[in-house]
Amino acid sequence: MSKQYETVIGLEVHVELATKTKIFCSCSTAFGGAPNTHTCPVCTGMPGSLPVLNKKVVEYAMAVGLATNCTITRHSKFDRKNYFYPDNPQNYQISQLYAPICRDGYVEIETETGSKKIGIHEIHMEEDAGKLIHDEWEDCSLVDYNRSGVPLIEIVSEPDMRSAEEVIAYLDKLRLIIQYLGASDCKLQEGSMRADVNLSVREVGAKEFGTRTEMKNLNSFKAIGRAIEGERQRQIELLKEGRQVIQETRRWDDNKESSHAMRSKEDAQDYRYFPEPDLVPIDISEEWLEEIKACQPELRTEKLKRYKEEFEIPEYDAQILTGSKQMADMFEAATAICKKPKKVSNWLMVETMRLLKEAGQEPEDMRFSPEHLAKLIELADAGTINSSVAKEVFEHIFHEDVDPEKYVEEKGLKTVNDEGALRETIERIVAANPQSVADYKGGKEKALGFLVGQTMKEMKGKANPGKVNEILKELLK
């Protein structure tokens, strides 16, 4: 009988925090600036420059720790991790080894097999390195220090995951928690959330872990899923052939759907850590901790429950609405204005999702105001505009955030409820379509739909469909 193997996975997740300035200096953290323009002597590692800790970084780290059920370290400190690499200007990175800010937490994930707790070993604060750009044309490497000193938290999980499905559920849970806290936008494609996957395989039933490899360069959930599957197969094949898995760091190439070794990684790798001499330890008082606890927002799990109870929104809709902080904020703000939760939910679930998909955008990219969505719902409900006009107006709200009242007025899109004008148009349509009239009288209900359509066309879509139906039926009697 062939051996059965089990996959063991732990993650190191780096998250760029949403502070306006860097962790140890006042340079901007904005994404996409011209190379080396968001820099100063501190973040470029000039001799004699001294770091000053950004308080907001500590508060975000505490907030994430509390939301992931961690114990907050009351006496936390920084350490120097020494290594030479061209994008690391000081030749060391300020990080936390001995007293990280958060420890021993967990998040609960839901998969097809049910719910499961994934342990969080620790969360520590550190600074990001710069970025190397390899110029193949000139055959050289250029360095951009804009990212150097951008604040990160590193969330280190326990090796509790057993499949790509569990890994993606865990990452999705973390992403939503952090987005709801406002601590980061967690955009994998921009590098503000990066995951390194530590993976090993062992025979089912074995107590000891196998030799693990670390996978880097994963910038989407799909790439992470493919990399896990690829590495799992590679390790199982090695073991079946009686060969050893080497502990190393591997780089995933999503285009080739394969990985290659970057460097071997021994457990005893010596970064020569020592306490950071230029920063004092962080003492977290009871008052400060209570202050952060008091500011914790309602997270997705509580929101889901509340939406179903308070607004009577179906489970599926509530899942979509709370699946993005932006979508949840839009729903709540528009509902607060028009007091019509189900209508707001429908507009977001159907038209908004359709337009986002067409534009290749995420809910985070929505730029229209909840006030304009609420106004549109009021106009449609009052019968001022009919449903097809409402959809047309919403497209303009979505793309240009127009004021629906002004737009309807300027474009003359108000519904025609004037019975005299409607009756006159319908009489003309009936007279011009004797065959459809005969078909309807002969029992063909579809013929009525055709006549309604012709009337709407004549009225440029501005007639009240209910009124049109009513008058048509009366005339055809």
UniProtKB/TrEMBL annotation:
Gene3D superfamilies (alphabetical): 1.10.10.410, GatB domain, N-terminal subdomain
Keyword Ligase applies: yes
GO biological process: glutaminyl-tRNAGln biosynthesis via transamidation; translation
Principal EC category: ligase
Protein origin, superkingdom: Bacteria
Enzyme Commission number, as recorded: 6.3.5.-
Gene Ontology molecular function, alphabetical: ATP binding; glutaminyl-tRNA synthase (glutamine-hydrolyzing) activity
SMART domains given in the database record: GatB_Yqey (SM00845)
Alphabetized UniProt keyword annotations: ATP-binding, Ligase, Nucleotide-binding, Protein biosynthesis
Asn/Gln amidotransferase domain sequence ranges: 329-476
Keyword Calcium appears in the UniProt entry: no
Family matches, as PROSITE patterns: GATB
Pfam families cross-referenced by the UniProt entry: GatB_N, GatB_Yqey
Catalytic activity: L-aspartyl-tRNA(Asn) + L-glutamine + ATP + H2O = L-asparaginyl-tRNA(Asn) + L-glutamate + ADP + phosphate + 2 H(+); L-glutamyl-tRNA(Gln) + L-glutamine + ATP + H2O = L-glutaminyl-tRNA(Gln) + L-glutamate + ADP + phosphate + H(+)
Family, similarity comment: Belongs to the GatB/GatE family. GatB subfamily.
Free-text function comment from the UniProt entry: Allows the formation of correctly charged Asn-tRNA(Asn) or Gln-tRNA(Gln) through the transamidation of misacylated Asp-tRNA(Asn) or Glu-tRNA(Gln) in organisms which lack either or both of asparaginyl-tRNA or glutaminyl-tRNA synthetases. The reaction takes place in the presence of glutamine and ATP through an activated phospho-Asp-tRNA(Asn) or phospho-Glu-tRNA(Gln).
Subunit (UniProt): Heterotrimer of A, B and C subunits.
Protein name, per record: Aspartyl/glutamyl-tRNA(Asn/Gln) amidotransferase subunit B
Originating organism: Anaerosacchariphilus hominis
